[in-house]
Design a protein that fits this description.
- The complex is a heterodimer of chains A (about 260) and B (about 270).
- Chain A is built from seven helices and ten strands.
- Chain A has helices at about 5-30, 30-35, 35-55, 85-95, 115-120, 145-155, 185-190, and strands spanning about 100-105, 110-115, 125-130, 135-145, 160-165, 180-185, 195-200, 205, 215, 230-235.
- In chain A, the strands form two sheets. Chain A has a five-stranded mixed beta sheet with strand order 2-1-10-5-6.
- Chain A is globular, with a radius of gyration of 23 Å.
- Chain B folds into two domains: about 5-40 and about 110-270, Transmembrane di-heme cytochromes, Chain C (Fumarate Reductase Cytochrome B subunit), CATH 1.20.950; about 45-100, no CATH class.
- Chain B is built from ten helices and eight strands.
- Chain B has helices at about 15-40, 115-140, 145-150, 150-155, 160-165, 180-205, 205-210, 215-220, 225-250, 255-260, and strands at about 5-10, 45, 60-65, 70-75, 80, 85-90, 95-100, 265-270.
- In chain B, the strands form three sheets. In chain B, strands 2-3-4-5 form a four-stranded antiparallel beta sheet.
- In chain B, strand 4 and strand 5 form a beta hairpin.
- In chain B, helix 1 packs antiparallel against helix 2 and helix 6 (about 180-205) packs antiparallel against helix 9 (about 225-250).
- Classes of the chains: A alpha+beta (about 260), B alpha+beta (about 270).
- Chains A and B meet through helix 1, helix 2, helix 3 and strand 4 of A and helix 1, helix 2, helix 7, helix 9 and helix 10 of B.
């Protein structure tokens, strides 16, 4: 008689382990990651991470800046490394003399600026670390105009919440706007002193693999936020109406909008 | 003699320890598997602030070996052929795929960095909340001081304890009511060193946190060093879990499992002590 409860307990434990094992094995199954309810729950962490970092990191805290000696000899060019488009190739052939950056959306004074006009504005140079979402880091020297200066010049309206960057490269290879790269940042990053639109890299005009003629630098976030081949900037009050609605090319493909981690 | 007279049932693990233990098991399993998914996006490790692509301290990659393409794992300058395990795997049709760890051990089970990151950060939060609760409980309840901190005399006799473990002789009777000195040290190293190190090196990889707390970069010698230490500490935890599971198996799997589920642990008493 005394042995019986022990067997029951053992049976209970065995069944419990079997259920736990099946659950864990299910976790290994890719199907679980595809379940909408799983995605919804996992997405909750992004808001928590964003709120925590906003609470823990001062809006004016600067990303680490490095010395000339620490610049990477072989800065990896990721994503698009050229723009497969005749219009862009014609601009590049002419040293981007005919290229114009358009600044619009929720602004009082829409702008169209040439590269020479951007270069005539006050410049900021910074040697920073570029962290790719894949895991690697490279260090480069960037010179450009602060995004804040451009937004002030364009008289950004008080109801603007996001700055959206439209790019020339068709990374999605759809042949239309759906595949074109785009990105967005919130106002805190838009007005951060290290957030610049860079036209020089390591003391020379920005090379095509790195986004000529102009790329974004958002130094407190990952590389995919730093849009290359920037053609147009718009101040917006929301992101829902733009393409996939999640605020960026990679965001529409599952990556976090907040890439500070 | 009946079985009952030779054993004593003690209440070994408090509810807080049991709950945080199992939450930690789930969190660490998901963190490990999603971490390998993230690692596979760039299966190489470096020292310092940046990636010197020509000089990784560890890398899993394809290499030409004569006419053949093989998977090679490089560790500190040594190249080891790990075809079909790490670096490169041949498929049944003769085609090959370049990858780090096999997809059977990653989450999700195919290349999907975006989803791997979402699993990783969600369960990192669960790990942090659970671990914080455990540490507060352990400090306040005295679990840390009474059950885990080894005494001076225990540390003095550590050699004897190691020898007994080698002979697979484990404490009996009253001695088995508390953790032995090697157990205490192993649990302390995991709970107070390796797991907090995982969090700190993880945070050091965040460009947002680095801006607010530059000392994260200083203490680990740069972001890429932090990533390498994150990988090594994770390997240390895997090693601990393997040894932990082996010890659970050879010291009585049902008794150990029951004690971590219900709290009750059966001590076999030597003859005459019943």
């Amino acid at each position: 008689m005394s042995a019986k409860p022990k067997i029951d307990r053992r049976g209970f434990l065995t069944r419990g382990l079997a259920i736990a094992g099946a659950t864990l094995a299910g976790g290994c199954d890719s199907e679980l990651s595809e379940q909408p309810w799983v995605k919804r729950i996992l997405d909750k962490a992004e808001a928590l991470t964003y709120a925590s970092q906003r609470a823990l990191v001062s809006p004016t805290a600067l990303a680490r800046e490095y010395s000339e000696a620490e610049i990477s000899k072989d800065f990896k060019a990721n994503g698009s490394t050229e723009v497969d488009d005749d219009g862009y190739r014609a601009l590049a052939a002419n040293g981007f003399a005919d290229w114009r950056l358009k600044v619009g959306g929720l602004v009082g004074q829409p702008l169209e600026l040439s590269l020479a006009e951007l270069r005539a504005m006050p410049a900021r140079t910074q040697i920073t670390r570029h962290d790719c979402v894949e895991g690697w880091s490279c260090i480069g020297k960037w010179t450009g105009v602060q995004l804040k200066a451009l937004l002030d010049k364009a008289a950004i309206k008080p109801n603007a919440r996001y700055i959206v960057f439209y790019c020339a490269d068709d990374l999605g290879e759809t042949g239309d706007d759906d595949g074109k790269y785009y990105e967005s940042v919130g106002l805190e990053d838009a007005f951060h002193p290290q957030t610049i639109l860079a036209y020089d890299m390591n003391g020379a005009p920005l090379p095509i693999p790195h986004g000529a003629p102009l790329r974004l630098r958002v130094e407190r976030q990952l590389g995919y936020k730093m849009a290359k081949y920037v053609m147009r900037i718009e101040a917006m009050d929301g992101l829902a109406g733009i393409r996939g609605g999640r605020g960026g090319f990679w965001e529409d493909r599952g990556y976090e909008w907040y890439a500070g981690i | 003699m009946t079985e009952a007279s030779q054993q004593e049932v003690i209440y070994r693990h408090s509810g807080a320890v049991r709950v945080t233990h199992w939450v930690n098991v789930i969190a660490l399993l998901v963190l490990l598997m999603s971490g390998l998914q993230i690692f596979n996006a760039h299966p190489a490790l470096y020292l310092g602030a940046k990636s010197n692509f020509d000089d990784p301290v560890m890398a899993m990659r394809p290499m030409k070996h004569g006419e053949e393409i093989v998977g090679v794992t490089t560790i500190a300058g040594w190249n080891i052929d790990t075809t079909n395990l790490f670096g490169l795997a041949y498929m049944p049709d003769g085609d090959y795929e370049v990858r780090g760890f096999p997809w059977s051990v990653t989450l999700p089970g195919h290349r999907d960095l975006a989803t791997g990151r979402r699993w990783h950060f969600f369960f990192a939060w669960l790990f942090v909340i659970n671990g914080t609760a455990y540490l507060i409980y352990s400090l306040v309840s005295g679990h840390l001081r009474k059950d885990l901190a080894p005494s001076g005399s225990e540390l003095k006799h550590i050699g004897a304890s190691i020898w007994e473990h080698i002979k697979l002789k484990f404490p009996q009777g009253d001695e088995a009511k508390r953790y032995n000195v090697l157990q205490k040290l192993a649990y302390l190293i995991v709970a107070l060193v390796l797991l907090p190190l995982m969090l700190a090196t993880g945070l050091a990889m965040s460009p947002g946190m680095d801006a607010g707390y530059p000392f994260l970069l200083e203490i680990f010698g740069g972001r890429q060093s932090a990533r390498t230490i994150h990988f090594i500490a994770a390997s240390g935890i895997v090693l601990f879990v393997v040894v932990h599971l082996v010890m659970v198996l050879i010291t009585g799997v049902w008794n150990n499992l029951r004690s971590m589920i219900t709290g009750r642990y059966v001590i076999k008493l030597p003859e005459g002590q019943a």
